[in-house]
């Protein structure tokens, strides 16, 4: 009996030990499963965001690199040489040197080329800063930091599989103790497998803790990662400010060269600006056309009334815009010359007789008494700005000379005023030139006709038509007595008959 009891005691103890082991295994397994579920629930959202951050960071980095004009990863000097702006700068400077200082285009290209080089330098420094402060950190985040955390997640999954395998072997060993005969050896083996399972479990816990720490660290640094894009905008703002400074510093120099350049088209340019640029007293188109007409157009019938050929007129205007004195080919076409003069007057930004005095001109022309009307027109005429008055005097004295030959050319003061007057004065109103001319033509004729008719009285000073000396003076003509009111050969010019001995004549002299 004693032997039986002594034999059954180890079996009982062994059964009790197996029950205890099974309980511990079941409890440990349940704890592990609960922890894994909680781990998955707490980290799933962060893990999904990490993967999304990796994708969008990678795509943004790729697009940002494509926006760079320099080659990423190269040093400053090589990057600067490869920039398109640098190539543009070199081409402009070389082109400017080829054209030379005598060309405004050459001057502009040289100055602009230097400016483009400075802009290229600013762009190079900007891209280097973007590469250092934005692209490199963004690449580190997308290609290293997040992938390493995601790799660690895969490592944890592998360690969990290793643990499950170790636990399965250990459970199998504990079952073998029950059915086996060598209990002691089986128990020792189970203990070894238990140690392996515990070691695998420790690795799982360590990896899980590290993964959790990295994930929480990533989540807490999202604000720091977002600063990359703030840095991008700040760098871009700084680059554009510096580039704007470069442009603002060079623009006054370019504008000064442009303003100092005298070779600018006369047609469409303000009278004062043209005279200042060219250093002239009389606008070139006015003097050139008058000199050509004095030579070949004084007897031409219908001058200023008959339209010229469009191509010839265009060519003459282009020649005058170039400030050339080589105009011999146009002497034979006085209608083209007259058309060019009309075009110049019509294309002035402000009429020769000015917008400012328009109402006063109209009011003066409306005076009913002829003598007082002339006096009123004379008063307004003397209010003209100096350059306008000088050029009007030059032109009117020529038109008066043209009217002397009206028997041949059919251009009386009235006819001249009709065809040329709307080009000398128009209202500052909206609408086409035709509409403006139609609205003011009657008044303008009443203004211009008496001024031409009494040119010597309005402008008694002698006029040198070749004021610049650029043109040859025409041979004097003998037939200058068509109108009794004109006597160009005397120093004392006759006054208009209605003005002789009147108080207005005295008043004019006192002014």
UniProtKB/TrEMBL annotation:
Signal peptide: none annotated. Residues 28-263 form the BAR domain. Pfam families: BAR (PF03114), RhoGAP (PF00620). Keywords: Cell junction, Coiled coil, Cytoplasm, GTPase activation, Membrane, Phosphoprotein, SH3-binding, Tight junction. Residues 269-459 form the Rho-GAP domain. GO terms for molecular function: GTPase activator activity; SH3 domain binding. Residues 492-511 are annotated as: Disordered. CDD domains: RhoGAP_nadrin. InterPro entries: AH/BAR_dom_sf, BAR_dom, RHG17/44/SH3BP1-like, Rho_GTPase_activation_prot, RhoGAP_dom. It is a peripheral membrane protein. It is found in: Cell junction, Tight junction; Cytoplasm; Membrane. One of its GO terms (biological process) is regulation of actin cytoskeleton organization. Residues 183-210 form a coiled coil. GO terms for cellular component: bicellular tight junction; cytosol; membrane. PROSITE patterns: BAR, RHOGAP. It comes from the Eukaryota. Rho GTPase-activating protein involved in the maintenance of tight junction by regulating the activity of CDC42, thereby playing a central role in apical polarity of epithelial cells. Specifically acts as a GTPase activator for the CDC42 GTPase by converting it to an inactive GDP-bound state. The complex formed with AMOT acts by regulating the uptake of polarity proteins at tight junctions, possibly by deciding whether tight junction transmembrane proteins are recycled back to the plasma membrane or sent elsewhere. Component of a complex whose core is composed of ARHGAP17, AMOT, PALS1, PATJ and PARD3/PAR3. Interacts with NHERF1, FNBP1, TRIP10, CAPZA (CAPZA1, CAPZA2 or CAPZA3), CAPZB, CD2AP and SH3KBP1/CIN85. This is Rho GTPase-activating protein 17. It comes from Takifugu rubripes (Japanese pufferfish). The gene is arhgap17a.
């Amino acid at each position: 009996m004693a032997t039986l009891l002594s034999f059954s005691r180890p079996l009982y103890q062994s059964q009790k030990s197996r029950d205890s082991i099974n309980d511990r295994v079941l409890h440990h397994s349940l704890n592990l499963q609960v922890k894994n579920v909680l781990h998955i629930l707490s980290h799933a959202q962060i893990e999904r965001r990490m993967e999304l951050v990796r994708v969008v960071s990678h795509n943004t980095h790729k697009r940002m690199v494509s926006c760079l004009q320099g080659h990423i990863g190269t040093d400053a000097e090589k990057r600067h040489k490869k920039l398109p702006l640098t190539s543009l700068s070199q081409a402009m400077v070389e082109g400017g040197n080829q054209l030379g200082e005598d060309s405004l285009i050459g001057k502009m290209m040289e100055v602009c080329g230097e400016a483009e080089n400075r802009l290229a330098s600013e762009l190079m420094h900007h891209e280097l800063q973007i590469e250092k402060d934005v692209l490199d950190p963004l690449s580190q985040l997308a290609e290293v930091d997040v992938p390493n955390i995601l790799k660690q997640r895969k490592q944890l999954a592998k360690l969990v599989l290793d643990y499950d395998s170790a636990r399965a072997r250990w459970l199998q060993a504990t079952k073998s103790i029950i059915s086996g005969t060598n209990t002691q050896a089986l128990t020792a083996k189970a203990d070894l497998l238990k140690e392996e399972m515990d070691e695998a479990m420790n690795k799982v816990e360590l990896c899980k803790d590290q993964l959790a720490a990295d994930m929480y660290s990533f989540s807490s640094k999202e604000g720091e990662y977002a600063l990359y894009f703030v840095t991008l905008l700040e760098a871009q703002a700084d680059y554009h400010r510096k580039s704007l400074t470069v442009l603002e510093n060079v623009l006054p120099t370019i504008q000064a060269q442009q303003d100092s350049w005298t070779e600018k088209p006369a047609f469409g340019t303000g009278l004062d600006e043209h005279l200042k640029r060219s250093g002239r007293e009389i606008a070139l188109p006015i003097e050139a056309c008058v000199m050509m007409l004095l030579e070949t157009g004084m007897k031409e019938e219908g001058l200023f009334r008959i339209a010229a050929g469009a191509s010839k007129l265009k060519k003459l205007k282009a020649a005058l815009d170039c400030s050339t004195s080589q105009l011999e080919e146009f002497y034979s076409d006085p209608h083209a010359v007259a058309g060019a003069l009309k075009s110049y007057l019509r294309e002035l930004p402000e009429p020769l007789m000015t917008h400012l005095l328009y109402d006063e001109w109209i009011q003066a022309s409306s005076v009913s008494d002829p003598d007082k009307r002339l006096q009123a027109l004379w008063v307004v005429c003397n209010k003209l700005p100096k350059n306008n008055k000088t050029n009007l005097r030059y032109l009117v004295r020529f038109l008066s000379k043209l009217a002397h030959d009206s028997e041949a050319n059919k251009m009386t003061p009235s006819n001249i005023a009709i065809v040329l007057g709307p080009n000398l004065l128009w209202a500052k109103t909206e609408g086409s030139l035709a509409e403006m001319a139609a609205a003011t033509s009657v008044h303008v004729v009443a203004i211009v006709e008496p001024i031409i008719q009494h040119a010597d009285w309005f402008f008694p000073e002698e006029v040198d038509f070749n004021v610049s000396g650029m043109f040859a003076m025409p041979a004097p003509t003998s037939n200058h007595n068509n109108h009794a009111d004109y006597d160009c050969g005397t120093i004392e010019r006759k006054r208009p008959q209605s003005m002789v001995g009147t108080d207005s004549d005295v008043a004019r002299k006192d002014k």
